[in-house]
Amino acid sequence: MELMEPLGMQYMEIYRGGNGFDLGSTLLGGAINMHTLTGYDAKTYQARVEAGSFGYVKEQLSSGKVIGKSDYYISVTNSYRGGYQKNTKISNFGINFNYGYRFNDAVDTRFFFRYRQSYEGQPNYLTRAQIAENPRQARPGYYNTYTILPGTKYFGDRTRIRIDDKSNLLIGFTYIDAPMNHGLPTLQLPMNVIGANGVVNYTRKDNIAGHKSNTTIGVYTTVDVGYNVYNYHVRSTSAYAAYGLPFGALVNSWHRGGSNTIWHISNDTEVYKNLWLTAGGALSYMPRSTTTTYPVHSHFSVDPLYFAPRGGFRYQITPDIRVYGNVTRSVQSATDNDFLSGSRYQSGPATGLTEGYQRLTPQTATTFEIGSEGTFKGQHWSISYYHSAVRNELLSVMTATSALYNTAVLSNASPTTHQGVEVGLSHKLYQWNGNSIYLMHAYTYQDFRYNHDPNFGHNRLPGIPEHLYQAQLHADFNNGFYSSFDVEAASSVYATYDNKAKAAAYHIYNLTFGYLWPKKSRRVYFQLHNLTNKHYASAVIPVYTATHGDAAAEMPGDGFGVFAGIDVGFN
């Protein structure tokens, strides 16, 4: 995700759960499809600068243009943030480039290249009491820890072929080379992640006995190229003085390798007027292997094969209103390095690092979903209910020892249940003389819990708020001025699996004023963030149990901040 730069994106599509099936995703969470800007929708020249509190500065220069059968888009970004919390300095430099060529009306291709350098301080996590007292502090021992990505390179190509008026073929591949270096409290962890992805998707539209029918057949694969190497080296000689190890001495080394290959097929048929039925299936092959080479030698490998079916319906009540429902089977294997979550070295320089492997079963789930979405008299809504019966859920926990080595302990859980309701509403409240005021809000209810766990009973899974509400009141004026008022409110979040520690509930408010030149791509804005300077946890990384009712598991959110920016584009 370090390559994801929002300023280079046109838009993002989020396919929840089984809705990501046709993209080759069999994951419980679904899939995200990111669409970059191209020469067809970008300004010929564009410049953007924004700055504000906590030493934040970000600049962007971009250009996009269509030249005959070709088009290009390039964006160069540079950013720096001193940080709200101690040791949260972040700096980034990135290039996002793509080039497209239309051979004819039936064939086009697009080449992608991205490059990114980044530095990010790692302050670790705080307790609830520490955030309430001073959210700007770092956890003791993490004042000089960091992650550096000296130069991630990404290459890709996507080719579309229109075979005939009914069928299309999409072929794509990507290659990523991501070296990185983790500066841990006592160790240095340089590593290099090299991977490749490929996709082939065939889509066809038919009319069978007077019924519209759409079919998708595809294969998606991702593979580690060679064995990705992880080497722990001495960073603090004082921590290893008893062993006489110099700076840079090797303490632990292991390799990983693996792949995912998913073959999928689905069909969507209008069996009656406006009533569509969907059926599909995916075969998922997920081999994994991990080898420790120092200070001991051991090897572990698995090659699970799973089938995931899917079925559903949608009924188009009117052109703008529909109801839908589906049942999806999902499957997800642990990543290569997650299998290295077994026993730890009990003696020698590698004490505390993971020595052994544990056999992790792929997580599976059966999910039921029903919902409705539509627009009526300018008011838009989306509402859905889902229920997932999860088996062998892959749950991770951060311990004091694993945090020192930038790892987590992963294991299969006893049966769990995920269920919830998601509601999104958009209202146009008032409109006059080309001016408008509208309200957008979203509410999410999440009930994730154990069923009958021998240790945790029916406890809720930590790290997830039960209630989350977000809203924006936005006003657009015909003279170019606009303003918005945002609110985000979340209920308290359990920080431990024993449910004896919680992050506090919170509500934060933001206010934005801006001016957009009519009929021109020029904009200025001014934003006030977290108006009440609320101390809160923006994320929770679960731990096993609480100590005196609290746990070092919370990541503090930013306090009150002031930001401003200017964006100028022209053809």
What does this structure look like?
The protein has 571 residues and is mainly beta. The protein has helices at 128-133, 400-404; strands at residues 9-15, 31-36, 45-52, 56-67, 70-81, 90-102, 107-121, 146-162, 167-183, 187-208, 211-224, 228-234, 250-272, 275-285, 288-294, 298-302, 305-318, 321-332, 363-376, 379-391, 394-397, 409-412, 416-432, 435-450, 467-476, 481-490, 493-494, 502-503, 506-516, 521-529, 537-540, 554-556, 561-570. The mean pLDDT is 93.
Number of domains: 1
The CATH homologous superfamily: TonB-dependent receptor, beta-barrel domain
Instruction: Report the portion of residues in β strands.
Output: over 45%
What is the tally of helical segments? 2
Q: Let me know the number of strands.
A: 33
Annotated CATH topology: Maltoporin, Chain A
Q: How widely separated are the two ends?
A: 31 Å
- Architecture per CATH nomenclature, i.e. the level-2 architecture: Beta Barrel
Radius of gyration: 26 Å
Task: Name the quaternary structure.
Answer: single chain
Helix content: under 10%
Supply the key terms.
mainly beta, 2 helices, globular, two-stranded antiparallel ribbon, Maltoporin, Chain A, 571 residues, 25-stranded antiparallel β-sheet
Question: Summary?
Answer:
The chain contains 2 helices and 33 strands. The chain has helices spanning 128-133, 400-404; strands spanning 9-15, 31-36, 45-52, 56-67, 70-81, 90-102, 107-121, 146-162, 167-183, 187-208, 211-224, 228-234, 250-272, 275-285, 288-294, 298-302, 305-318, 321-332, 363-376, 379-391, 394-397, 409-412, 416-432, 435-450, 467-476, 481-490, 493-494, 502-503, 506-516, 521-529, 537-540, 554-556, 561-570.
